[in-house]
Request: fold
Amino acid sequence: MGKGDKPRGKIGLGTAAIGRPLYININKESKSEDFSLQSFRKKGIQLLETAYQSGVRYFDTAPGYGIAENMIIEWISEKDDTTIEIASKWGYTYVADFNPNAEVHEVKEHSLQKLNMQWNISKELLPHLTSYQIHSATLETGVLDNEAILEQLSRLKKHHNFKIGITTTGANQVEVLKKALEVKVKGEELFDLFQVTYNVFDQSIAPLAEEINKKHKRLVIKEALANGRVFSNTNYPNYIETYDYLQRLGAKYAVGEDAVALRFCLDSIPVFCVLSGASIEHHLSDNLKVNDFKLEDKEIAHLRGLSISPEYYWNERKLLVWS
Reply:
């Protein structure tokens, strides 16, 4: 098969929304009541190919994303391109079985047994698997203090020569990141990659971005569009100033608010990659317009001034539903 366009920019594709039909997001797209797993899978694989042909080379997945990891394993088997990087995770299990009325969609478990079980599938992504992460590392689960888990991750890192990372979530991201940066196994720092929430609203990790960069570790941004909250919404009158400014910048650069929000993440802190969470081709196309412009310093400064407290941000996020 062809190798598509040359890699462009620092935009990767997160696959949570293409591996399961519902996601924590403000969804403005109408959905058919009839669900076909076969057509859903076909659509997901097509989006992977569209992203690849558009120059995307970094794909983030997880067992907790329904069939996303399985789709990538199938899709990547037909690729012969060493520029493709896959990042996967362990720690969440998808349990909704594609039922939109399920009360529970995913279950978190940071145990050595879960790590070994999920690794047994994720290893099929090799040799394209370049990062393996603890999915939503928190202080509460104690995973960053679990010596058996940390030692197993260290062994995987040395044997497969890939990066070990964490993803973070919640108002105390900074505290978790600081702890993870200090984790060592046999005197060697374990974590090389940190996937964090960062956007125009929650900018709390910004002070740590430079430190991570100086250590030559990777910073990957998720939820750059704040689960859809960067788009003008009358349910959030408190963001009217932000909506107005994003729209003005969008008009200036002839792009949507999504591209402006993604560009802010690229221009305001040193990052390795910013993930698009698109599940529809025209949304992905709109996101990729981020590669066509750069924000001016004064525009970055203005957007920095629109941040809110992480506590407020995450309390608000908890009210979002699976849609």
Remarks:
- The domain at 11-24+34-317 is CATH 3.20.20.100 (TIM Barrel).
- The chain has twelve helices and twelve strands.
